[in-house]
């Protein structure tokens, strides 16, 4: 099943209200944000298109320079993105290889 359409309705994911009811919200370090999304969030739109999600990044003025990340989209797509973010942010080379 394509993460961008519902198997039952074949409608684009952004037209289905259930994809917006429970946004995934978490924080990531500023350096991890740049690693994933690129300098100035260059890759943000590309990641959204390929993951079938909408991602909002909000810089928080904290001592550690964290960014609040809000993701909406199909549940499976949000879970895949969270896993990818964790793997990219991991210092464990095994996760990077996956």
TrEMBL record:
Domain KH-like RNA-binding: start-end pairs: 10-94
Gene3D superfamilies associated with the record: K Homology domain, type 1 (3.30.1370.10)
GO MF entries: RNA binding
InterPro entries per UniProt: KH_dom_type_1_sf (IPR036612), MOEP19_KH-like (IPR031952)
Pfam entry (one): MOEP19
Protein family: Belongs to the KHDC1 family.
Record-given protein name: KH domain containing 1
Lineage: Eukaryota, Metazoa, Chordata, Craniata, Vertebrata
């Amino acid at each position: 099943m394509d993460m961008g359409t519902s198997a039952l309705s074949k409608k684009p994911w952004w037209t289905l209200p259930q994809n917006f009811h429970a946004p995934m919200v978490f924080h990531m370090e500023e350096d991890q944000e740049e690693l994933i999304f690129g300098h100035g969030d260059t890759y943000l739109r590309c990641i959204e298109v390929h993951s079938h999600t909408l991602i909002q990044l909000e810089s928080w003025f904290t001592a550690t320079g964290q960014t609040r990340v809000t993701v909406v989209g199909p549940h499976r797509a949000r879970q895949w993105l969270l896993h990818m973010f964790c793997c990219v942010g991991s210092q464990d080379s095994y996760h990077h290889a996956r």
